[in-house]
Amino acid sequence: MPAGYHAARGVRLDFPVSGAEHPRMDSNHPLVGVIMGSESDGETLAPALELLAELGIPHESRIVSAHRTPDWMFEYASGAEARGLLVIIAAAGGAAHLPGMTAAKTVLPVLGVPVAGAALGGVDAFLSIVQMPKGVPVGTLAIGKPGAANAALLAARIVGNTHPEVRERLKAWTAARADEVLRSGSAPKGIAP
Ligand code: RP5
């Protein structure tokens, strides 16, 4: 595997490879990889990156295009497990081959986020990502920002299986969301007495 190729993209290769049941929890050792087909997908992915940061989960984000940089996509996906990633969030719009092709090159869980494009509103990407053939699973989330946020929360649940501190932060985050609803009152504003 050409180390320089990764280094040129800011992906570290110089830490222990596989076998690590509990990869170290520091920001130099990402546990979640967030990849997207284009820089234009960044706005959609922002909620995912914010949540991963809020939950204190080491992560990385990269532009990886199934169509424009297929060799880089194969390298990223096939090297992800050895670099200590536990989950990959893959987002793309249009033909949206990135999540499925990534899942074809790794056995890590891949969470697919359909990005809404101008022509078909993301239904195209959603149908592409959700229709994986038997044997190559991609966990498909909702279209757009809600799907991106849920991908991060699902990634946190997966990471929480082996990192109790992440699970505890996720419990606290979830409890805080419940408190927000309860504090806001039970009647919808403006339409109920
Ligand atoms: C997809 O094509 C990308 O994931 C993006 O959602 C869409 C448009 O990409 P750009 O033309 O904005 O680079 O591959």
Task: Characterise the protein shown here.
By secondary structure, the chain is of the alpha/beta class. Helix content is 41%, strand content 13%. The protein has a five-stranded parallel beta sheet, with helices on both faces. The longest helix is centred in the last third of the chain and has 20 residues, at 164-183. 5-O-phosphono-beta-D-ribofuranose binds at residues 37-38, 40-41, 65, 67, 92-94, 115, 117.
Shape: globular
Hetero ligands = 5-O-phosphono-beta-D-ribofuranose
Kindly, what is the distance between the CA atoms of the first and last residues, rounded to a whole number of angstroms?
Answer: 65 Å
> What portion of the residues fall into strands of 2 or more residues?
5-15%
Low-confidence blocks of residues: 1-23
| Most strands sheet | 5 strands, parallel
What kind of assembly state do the chains in view correspond to? single chain
- Output the structural class: alpha/beta
Number of strands: 5
Q: Taking all residues together, what is the mean pLDDT?
A: 88
Radius of gyration: 18 Å
Helix content: 40-55%
